[in-house]
Amino acid sequence: MKSPVPRFRDVERQAGSLQPTQCVPPCHDRPNTMWFIRDACGIVCGVITWMLVFFAEFVVLFVMLLPSKNLTYSLVNGTIFNSLAFLALASHFRAMCTDPGAVPKGNATKEYIESLQLKPGQVVYKCPKCCSIKPDRAHHCSVCKRCIRKMDHHCPWVNNCVGENNQKYFVLFTMYIALISLHSLVMVVFHFLYCFEDDWTKCSSFSPPATVILLILLCFEGLLFLIFTSVMFGTQVHSICTDETGIEQLKKEERRWAKKTKWMNMKAVFGHPFSIAWFSPFSTPDHGKADPYQYVV
Ligand SMILES: [Zn+2]
Ligand SMILES: [Zn+2]
């Protein structure tokens, strides 16, 4: 039987904190400050990510391309590798510094709840940590200390949650890292062959042992990250197509939202209509604005 008044369900199970009036002080977000999570582990992982890309840049440029006698080979591969590495780092920066879809803190006030005009029996979820009313499909992240709309997972490598607003950048980041890993692996194979032909004398400006060590390290890095990021890329595209976040898949949550086609789901994340902007970390996709919870604070 339905209850006559809207019910407040607290998913974090803090029975005593269900009263909206206990949510003090309400904290409002400053809209002009850059989003950045102050988490030591995430910052270290983010710095390691950039250093790994710079190491690959160093080996590709100074060990393989600059000493090469074939100028066209160096120019073509140098341009492709540097462009992809730049796009990978730009995607990483956007994924890290974009608000993933944080729900305003402290909005579980009486006025706000009344303004939602809930129907009798309608269940509303409230987060006791943020003191906010959770929109459907939002989850609380203990690292970001915020509720995140359509939270997929918290990724320490980008030091941020992957959610509604930054999933595009995260997917691009995994794609560009997979591409530079593959490209550097192909170049390492060609360079090894070239060095064998040349008896290791003129194929690098470094000594033969140093050249071998640097190439093997790049080979390991390339293989590891090619596997890791291409699996992540595939998983992300699958969850976008099926419109089911990582958390919803893990928790086997029942689908309460409308089913759309795969193409519509892709457009919801990457922008409408399909264009080259899908592949650009500099273009901000226009996310759906029909959600009433998003703009009422
Ligand atoms: Zn929360
Ligand atoms: Zn998070």
TrEMBL record:
| PANTHER family with a match to the protein in the record | PALMITOYLTRANSFERASE ZDHHC16
Membrane protein topology class: Multi-pass membrane protein
Family per record: Belongs to the DHHC palmitoyltransferase family.
Catalysed reactions listed for this entry: L-cysteinyl-[protein] + hexadecanoyl-CoA = S-hexadecanoyl-L-cysteinyl-[protein] + CoA
Q: Which UniProt keywords apply?
A: Acyltransferase, Membrane, Transferase, Transmembrane, Transmembrane helix
Protein name per Swiss-Prot or TrEMBL: Palmitoyltransferase
User: What GO MF terms are annotated?
Assistant: protein-cysteine S-palmitoyltransferase activity
Domain comment in the entry: The DHHC domain is required for palmitoyltransferase activity.
Q: Where is the Palmitoyltransferase DHHC domain?
A: 126-252
Where does the UniProt annotation locate this protein? Membrane
Q: What high-level taxonomic lineage is stated for the organism?
A: Eukaryota, Metazoa, Chordata, Craniata, Vertebrata
Query: Membrane-crossing residues?
Result: 40-65, 71-90, 169-194, 206-228
Task: Give a Gene Ontology cellular component term annotated to this protein.
Answer: membrane
State its Enzyme Commission number(s). 2.3.1.225
| Alphabetized InterPro entries for the sequence | Palmitoyltrfase_DHHC, PFA4/ZDH16/20/ERF2-like
